[in-house]
Design goal:
eight-stranded parallel sheet; alpha/beta; 34% helix; globular
Length: 322
């Protein structure tokens, strides 16, 4: 359908034989309403553009430190509190999607042959959730809204069984809304300083024979992997989840820090999505003369067009790419 639309740009469709198929089975676009909320209509506009360019996966980043954007009926404070933040100038920014709106977006995308993958960030990037339910953290201290970039050390506490019960409830509701096979669990940039001081975490580490907090991160990922499996889902996560010693190889690894992580992911038996920041993070500056981020590097258009994910990852299992 999209190829025909491109052919008819001149007003008429010529008599041709069309041989058209994608190089990659996974062609995705990452949408982040946590930092800057986007309306349902804005999302539909993005989905229309994705379809035009034959993108077939929308990665929907629904929770982060700066905001919780999806209604969870069992935990209403996630949206009544976690969906709103106070900015540096005193203004309030926020919003969230009701479950009916989520269904609407998923259906709208499906009509355009796009699968929506939800991301629920854990155990780091969880300030919005902890603001709403402080008992999810190690210290249970009240937390203010987070309105800057970065990765604070306020994270979910794996030493508390009630925290995993919370995640089970959340994943159950999210799984019912998204028919795709994956739930993205984040797993990145989790600062572990509070775990190392937390009595509950230290007790768990001793019980499980762990020698460091990195193993506790792996324990967390493996527990969430099992929870997702209960609801018929596989997990996807940023490259940091590969730290889990017994994570199942049906997990999907998103390579983001650098292209160098692709060969490691494939070498370890995982499918991976190559979205290396130094090539495809579109919020990077294109030159020194414009505003924008440059932590990955300055990315002019010729660098983006030169991106060859197959050439940057080792041969192995099926390689997917953004």
């Amino acid at each position: 359908k999209q190829t025909l639309r491109q052919l008819e740009a001149g007003g008429e469709i010529p008599c041709v034989k069309i041989t058209d198929y994608p190089r990659y089975s996974w062609r995705g676009f990452h949408v982040d309403p946590c930092r800057h909320f986007q309306s349902v209509e804005d999302l539909k506009t993005m989905i229309d553009v994705m379809a035009q360019y034959k993108i077939n996966t929308m990665h929907w980043h629904l929770t982060d430190d700066q905001g919780w954007r999806i209604e969870i009926k069992k935990y209403p404070r996630l949206t009544s509190v976690g969906a709103w933040r106070t900015e540096w100038d005193g203004g309030v920014h926020g919003g969230y999607y009701s479950q009916e709106e989520v269904k609407e977006i998923v259906a709208y995308a499906e009509d355009r042959f796009i699968t929506v993958v939800p991301e629920i960030e854990m155990p780091g990037h969880a300030v919005a959730a902890i603001r709403a339910y402080t008992e999810l953290s190690c210290t249970e201290e009240p937390v203010g809204s987070f309105s800057t970039w970065g990765s604070p050390d306020i994270v979910l506490c794996p030493g508390k069984e009630k925290m995993f019960e919370f995640l089970d409830d959340v994943i159950a509701e999210v799984s019912a809304l998204f028919p795709g096979e994956y739930i993205h669990i984040g797993g990145d940039e989790c600062k572990k300083t509070r775990w190392e001081k937390c009595p509950a975490c230290r007790s768990l580490m001793e019980k499980e024979g762990m020698t460091g907090s990195e193993q506790l991160h792996g324990y967390f990922v493996s527990r969430v992997n099992d929870i997702a499996g209960k609801y018929g889902k596989k997990i996807a996560g940023w490259e940091e989840i590969m730290q889990a010693d017994n994570i199942k190889d049906n997990a999907l690894i998103y390579v983001w820090h650098s292209k160098k992580w692709g060969p490691q992911a494939v070498g370890n038996g995982f499918d991976c999505i190559m979205q290396a920041a130094e090539f495809v993070y579109l919020d990077m500056q294109q030159s020194k003369m414009e505003r924008g981020h440059n932590w990955a590097r300055i990315i002019p258009l010729d660098v983006i067009y030169s991106y060859d994910p197959i050439g940057l990852a080792a041969a192995g299992k099926a390689l997917r790419t953004l």
